[in-house]
Amino acid sequence: LLLLSSSVFNGLSDLNAYTDLLPALALPMLVELGIEADIAKIVHVTFVILATLTLVNFGLTLLYPQGLPFASLYTQIRNPLYFLGQDNGIVYNLLSLVGLNYVLAAQNYSIFKVKLLIGDYFIRLTPRIFIFNVVSILSMLLVGSATGLLVISSLIILLELSALANRKHNIWPLVSLYFSFFVFIIVLGDSNPLVADFTSLLGRDAGFTGRSLLWEQALELIKQKPLLGWGNDPEIIQIWGGYFSTHNQLLDIAARGGLLTLFLYICLHIYVFLILGRIPTTLANILFITIYCFLLGGLMEAGVRPTQYIFIALTYYACLDYKKPMI
Known about the structure:
The protein is mainly alpha-helical. It is 64% helix and 5% strand. Strand 1 and strand 2 form a beta hairpin. The longest helix is centred in the C-terminal third of the chain and has 29 residues.
């Protein structure tokens, strides 16, 4: 609603705000309806759709490394199924795919597990988890996205570490780490010597392929209209002879809808994390890590992905699964 108001005040079309609002409302409503019926089945159907599209996209990329020869409207080489996300944008669908896969495994829903005897120890493996983890990592390697590879790898590593240790991650140190990254990398930028040292270790430039200039411009735009922002226009920064996004989720929200919208967005996630932190279950841990990795991806990319709302809405299901009123 704030994005709609900001768009109206800035004389922009309200189309983008409506199209962004629809999935933000529809996906949580889908989860709510599923809770009344069979939420695990709805999650499974969603996973099957994502898995099918991911495998088709992955197969086409391998078969046609130079792009689809029969494509006329869209000729993206690295993501033949363009609606899954252009270039590194596909990582958000992969986050949803991997996250839902672990959710279903935690609930033992339509999942096959095997036990292997190695020495005197049994190791339990879930083939479907392994297959789609590998496909997700290989997909990001084919795309060539350092951000996407880091995010999907972080998701898998955090999930597997908690499974091996048989314990939940401590939420607040990870949240503090996220905001530390935002301040030192995004706000301070390449003026911070630590950023230069960090990026040199990764073999990347301190400007993050031009993103630091976009972040500086975004901060200036936010200062000019701090309350309601500039309206729901994803490409708001004029630079290099064109228009570009802020390439950061928090700056994007503040630039489009103002600091008030950003405040509500942060409050929503803190509220969700507070609830998940009080639920000592594997499901709650999976939901937190998946949402957290969506936020990590948002450090380098703009916008809030619709599938992120699925995992936020599933927090209510985690409460019911634990059978204690948390909300």
